[in-house]
Amino acid sequence: MAVPVSAATPAEFRQQLLAAGTLAATAEDGLYARSDAFERVALAFDALVTRRATAMGATRWSFAPIQPRASLERTGYLASFPHLAGSVHVFTGNDRDHAEMLRRINAGEDWSSALSPAPTVLCSACCQPLYPLMSGRLPVGGRLVDVTGWCFRHEPSRDLMRMQAFRMVEYVYVGEAPEAVAFRDEWLGRGRQVLVDLGLGIETVTANDPFFGRRGRLLAQNQQEAELKLELVTSIDAGSAPVAVASSNLHRDHFGQTFGITTSSGEVAHSTCFGWGLDRVVLALFHAHGTEPAGWPADVRTRLWP
Known about the structure:
single chain; 306 residues; alpha+beta; seven-stranded mixed beta sheet; three-stranded antiparallel beta sheet; 11 helices
C-alpha cells in the first residue's frame, strides 16, 4: 500500500516522486517527464471535471501550446507579465547562416542569434487563444466553454508547484456581467467540493496575479481589493504557504472590449474563468495519498475511475 507523504517538505516530496519514478527530471529546472502513473491520474481528473462541464452544457475546446503572436499582444499580457512570457524562434537563414550556426554550436558559443522570432508565441494560460474566436454577438445566455491545453511560464524552479510547462483545464463563461459573477461564485464552491471529495484539504483565499514592476504592484493591490482573483489552496508543507490548485479570475469586460465580444442585447460582454492546475492537482493527490494510486482510499479511486 502507498505511504502518504503529507509530512514531507517540498524538497523531500520532489525527491520521493523522482525516486519512485513518478516524475523524471531534465537538465532544466521546472521541466519534467511524467510517468504513466502520473498521466493516468491526470487523465482521470480531466475526465472527472469534463463530466461536470458537459452536464452544464459546456462546449470543449483543446488548444495547442502556441498561439498567434498578435493575439497575445492584444490580450495585454505582455504589459502585465513580460517576465513569464515565452516566444517561439525559428531558423530562416541560408546555407551560409546555417554553417555559421553550426560553427557556434561546435565551439560552445551562443547560437540563438541565428534564429528569428516566429509569428507564434507560447500560451501562458490555456484560455488565451479562446477569446479571439468568440468575437461577435453571443447567443442568449452567453457561452460556456471547457478549455484545456499546455501552458508555459518562465519561472524556473525546483519546486514541483512551479513547473515551467504544465496543463490547465478551465471553465470559461462569457456573457452578461451578473451571470459572470454568479458563475464565478458558484464554481468556487463546486470546485472546492470536487477537491475535498478527493481527500484534499482546501481553503478559499483572495489572491493576485504576479504582475510585473511598480505598475504591477498597484494592479495587484486593486485586484485583491476588488476580489477579482480567488484561489483554492492546499498545504504541501506546514512550514510553507499553501499553494493554489485551482483559481477563478473575473475579467469584467476586458476581453469583451479587446476582441469585440457582445452579449445578445449588444452590450460589451463580461467574462470569468475557473481554472484547475491539472498537474498541481495530481501532485497534491500524490502528496496526500502516496506514490501508488492503487493504494489510494477506495472512495478517491472510485471518483477518479468510476
